[in-house]
Write a structure and sequence with these properties.
With 622 residues, the chain is an alpha/beta fold. The chain has 23 helices and 19 strands. The strands form five sheets. The chain has a six-stranded parallel beta sheet, sandwiched between helices. Helix 14 packs across helix 15 and helix 16 packs antiparallel against helix 21. The structure holds 5'-O-[(L-methionyl)-sulphamoyl]adenosine (MSP). 5'-O-[(L-methionyl)-sulphamoyl]adenosine binds next to strand 2, helix 4 and strand 13.
C-alpha cells in the first residue's frame, strides 16, 4: 500500500516558509542561547555513584546535590527509556549494564557523570498491554517501571537520574519543545495512510517489510492505518544532517552504523507524523486535545527532562542548562534511525545542541533471533542474577559480546567463561597468594610493592595492559577492555607459577625473602586488577579490595590513577582469605540445581545442572 500524504490548510502556512534562518553548517552552531548551552556552567550536581547494592547510593537517592567529581568535565550518558509493556528482559538489561560500566569508568577518570535511564510509558503498545493485564495504564506503568528499578538494583546499576515519561515535569518539557518546533514552522497537519508496526510504534516503508507485510524486527504483520496527524518536517533537515555526518564521523558509532545512517539519509528523508488521533494514552497535542503526541516525539525528550532538579524550575531552559548536550546516547541498533536522524533534526528545529555521540550496539540473540518481549524468546535477568550474581552476569555479556555486534547466549558458555576468568584466573590467584601470605608472613606485606618490583618485567607488562584497558574503555571496546584485565590476571598467574614461592619458602634462607616479595608483587597485581575491573564487576572488585586490607570508603574513592603500580605498602595487613568469586559447581550426576544464597553479593557456592564440565579449577597451593 502506498503511503499518502496530503497537506491540509491548517498548516500550509508553515510550509510556505519551510526553512528557518539558522545556519546549518556545523552542529556546534545549534545553540539554544549562549546562556543555556554551556555545560561548564552546570551546577555541580552529580553525586558519585557508589559501587555495590550494599552501599548503593547515587545522585538520585543521595539526598543532596553536591557534586564531588573533580574533573571539571561533565559526562552525560543515557540508556534508552524502556517500554513498560512488559518487565525487563536480558536484552534491555544489556544496554544498561554497558552504560553503567562506561559511567563507572568515566567517574574513575574523575569526571562528573550524569547517567540517565528511565521508562517510556505512553502510547498504544503500553495501553494495550495494560488492558491485557486488566490494569489501568497508570497503575500498569507504576508496576513495570518499578520492576526496571528493581532489576537495576540487583545488577548494581548506579544511575544518577531515572525519568518516567508520565512524570508531569517531563510532560511540561515535551509541550514546550513541541511549541518551539511549531514556532519554527516545522509542524504541519496532514492525512496519512500506511502500514504501522505497533511494536516498533512506527509507520513502515513497504519495501522494508517481509512477506505478508511482516515487520522484520518483530516478525508480525503491520496493520493498515489512515489518520489525520501532525507532521514534523524532517525532509527540511536532509542537508544539515548530511553535513553533520560528513563533518563529524564520530557522531554515529560504530563506523558501520554511520554508513547505514548515511545511506538512509541519502535515499531521501520523509516527514513523519508526530501525533496520533486514535491513541488516548499520551501527552495531548498543545491546542488540540483530540490528538496525543507520538511516543518518540515524547520519549526522546526524556533525555533532557531527566536533567531537571526538584528544586529548580521545570522548564526546557533550566533542564538544558543542567547538562545538555549529552555526551553519549547508548542504544540498540533497532532504534538508530530515531536517535541519529529524527532526534538531531528535532533538536536543530528547537535550536538545541546535538548529542556528541550515538552508539548503536547489537542484539542479544537466542537461536539467532533478537531476544525480545514481543517475540517472547527472552532470558530472565532476575533469574540469572539470582543464580549467578551481578558480577558474573555483567562480566559475561560485556566480555563475550563485542560491543556493537550481536551475541548469542548459552548457559554452557556462560559457566565456562565466568569460571575460567573470574573464579580461576582472578579469584583463585588471590586466594592462593593470601593463603601463602598467611602461612608464611602472618598476612602482612614485608616490603613496599614498588621496592618488590624493582627490575621485574611483570611491572612493565601490567602497565602496558592497564593502558590497553584504558584506551579500550575510552573507545567503548568493552570486551577488549575486559580482555586486557584478564591478561593482567594471566600474567600474575604465570609469575606465580614460574616463581613457585611455596617452594622458595620451603628452601629457607634468602629464598624466603624473595618468596615474600613475590607475594607482594602478586597482590599488587590483584589490586590493579580490582581497580581496572571495577567498571565491569564492581562487587567483585570491592571484595578483592577488602581482602587486601582496604575499607569500603577507600574503595569508593579509587580513581583510574590507582591502576599505577605502587599502592601496597610494607606492613599492610591483609584480611582473612575468602573466595572472592563463587565458582559455579556442576553436579551432572543427579541433575541437582542449587541456587545462589539470598545474599547474592556474597561469594558462595553455586550449583547448577549443566551438560558439560567447565575448565577445572587450579588447585590452591597454599
Ligand atoms: N522506548 C524505546 C526507546 C525510547 S528512547 C527515548 C524502546 N524501548 S525498548 O524497551 O523496546 O528497547 C530499549 C532498548 O533495549 C533498545 O536499545 C533495544 O535495542 C534494547 N534491546 C531490546 N532487546 C534487545 C536485545 N535482544 N538485545 C540487545 N538489546 C535489545 O525502544
Amino acid at each position: 500500500m502506498a503511503s499518502r500524504l496530503n497537506t491540509s490548510l491548517h498548516n500550509a502556512l508553515s510550509l510556505i516558509n519551510p526553512f528557518n534562518t539558522k545556519p546549518f553548517s556545523s552542529r556546534n552552531t545549534f545553540r539554544f542561547s549562549k546562556k543555556l548551552s554551556s555545560s561548564s556552567s552546570q551546577s555541580s550536581s552529580c553525586k558519585r555513584a557508589l559501587y555495590c547494592t550494599s552501599t548503593f547510593k547515587t545522585h538520585e537517592n543521595s539526598g543532596d546535590g553536591d557534586g564531588d567529581g573533580d574533573g571539571g568535565e561533565t559526562f552525560v550518558l543515557t540508556t534508552p527509556l524502556y517500554y513498560v509493556n512488559a518487565p525487563p528482559h536480558m536484552g534491555s538489561a544489556y544496554t544498561t549494564i554497558a552504560a553503567d560500566s562506561i559511567a563507572r569508568f568515566q567517574r574513575l577518570l574523575g569526571k562528573k557523570v550524569i547517567f540517565i535511564t528511565g521508562t517510556d510509558e505512553h502510547g498504544e503498545k503500553i495501553a494495550t498491554s495494560a488492558a491485557a493485564n486488566g490494569r489501568n495504564p497508570a497503575k500498569h506503568c507504576d508496576l513495570i517501571s518499578q520492576s526496571y528499578r528493581n532489576l537495576w538494583k540487583e545488577l548494581d546499576i548506579g544511575y544518577d537520574k531515572f525519568i518516567r515519561t508520565t512524570d508531569p515535569k517531563h510532560e511540561a518539557i515535551v509541550k514546550e519543545f513541541y511549541a518551539r518546533v511549531f514556532a519554527n514552522g516545522d509542524i504541519y497537519r496532514a492525512d496519512y495512510e500506511g502500514l504501522y508496526c505497533v511494536n516498533c510504534e512506527e509507520y513502515k516503508d513497504e519495501k522494508e517489510l517481509l512477506e505478508n507485510n511482516c515487520c522484520p524486527v518483530h516478525q508480525m504483520p503491520c496493520v493498515a492505518r489512515k489518520e489525520d496527524n501532525y507532521f514534523f518536517a524532517l525532509s527540511k533537515y536532509q542537508k544539515p544532517l548530511e553535513e553533520i555526518l560528513s563533518q563529524d564521523s564520530r557522531f554515529v558509532q560504530p563506523s558501520y552504523r554511520l554508513h547505514e545512517v548515511q545511506s538512509w539519509i541519502k535515499s531521501g528523508l520523509r516527514d513523519f507524523s508526530i501525533s496520533r488521533a486514535l491513541v488516548e494514552w499520551g501527552i495531548p497535542v498543545p491546542d488540540d486535545d483530540k490528538q496525543t503526541i507520538y511516543v518518540w516525539f515524547d520519549a526522546l525528550l526524556g533525555y533532557i527532562s531527566a536533567l531537571t532538579e526538584e528544586n529548580e524550575q521545570q522548564n526546557l531552559e533550566t533542564a538544558v542548562s543542567l547538562g545538555w548536550p549529552a555526551s553519549l546516547h547508548l542504544i540498540g541498533k533497532d532504534i538508530l534511525r530515531f536517535h541519529a536522524v529524527y532526534w538531531p533534526a528535532m533538536l536543530m528545529s528547537a535550536g538545541l545542541n546535538l548529542p556528541k555521540m550515538v552508539f548503536g550496539h547489537g542484539f542479544l540473540t537466542k537461536d539467532g533471533m533478537k531476544m525480545g518481549k514481543s517475540l517472547g524468546n527472552t532470558l530472565e535477568p532476575f533469574e540469572l542474577v539470582q543464580k549467578f550474581g551481578p558480577d558474573a552476569v555483567r562480566y559475561f555479556f560485556l566480555r563475550e559480546v563485542e560491543f556493537g555486534n550481536d551475541g548469542d547466549y548459552s548457559e554452557d558458555r556462560f559457566i565456562k567463561i565466568v569460571n575460567a576468568h573470574l573464579a580461576n584466573t582472578i579469584g583463585n590467584l588471590l586466594n592462593r597468594t593470601l593463603g601463602l601470605l598467611k602461612k608464611n608472613c602472618e598476612s602482612t606485606l614485608v616490603v613496599d610493592s614498588t621496592n618488590a618490583a624493582e627490575g621485574i618485567p611483570l611491572k612493565d607488562t601490567v602497565e602496558k595492559l592497564v593502558e590497553k584497558a584504558r584506551t579500550n574503555y575510552e573507545s567503548l571496546s568493552l570486551s577488549t577492555a575486559c580482555e586486557a584485565v584478564l591478561e593482567i590476571g594471566n600474567a600474575g598467574n604465570s609469575y606465580m607459577d614460574q616463581r613457585a614461592p611455596w617452594l622458595l619458602f620451603k628452601q629457607g634462607g634468602d629464598s624466603v625473602e624473595a618468596a615474600a616479595k613475590d607475594l607482594v608483587i602478586i597482590l599488587e597485581v590483584m589490586r590493579i586488577i580490582a581497580v581496572a575491573l571495577s567498571p565491569i564487576a564492581p562487587c567483585l572488585s570491592l571484595r578483592i579490595y577488602s581482602q587486601l586490607g582496604y575499607s569500603v570508603d577507600q574503595f569508593n574513592s579509587i580513581t583510574w590513577n590507582d591502576t599505577k603500580w605502587g599502592e601496597l605498602k610494607g606492613g599492610q595487613v591483609m584480611a582473612q582469605a575468602n573466595p572472592v568469586f563463587a565458582r559455579i559447581e556442576l553436579n551432572p550426576e543427579n541433575g541437582e540445581e542449587e541456587k545462589k544464597p539470598k545474599d547474592s553479593k556474597k561469594a558462595g557456592k553455586v550449583k547448577v545442572k549443566v551438560e558439560q564440565q567447565p575448565q577445572t579449577q587450579t588447585v590452591a597451593e597454599a
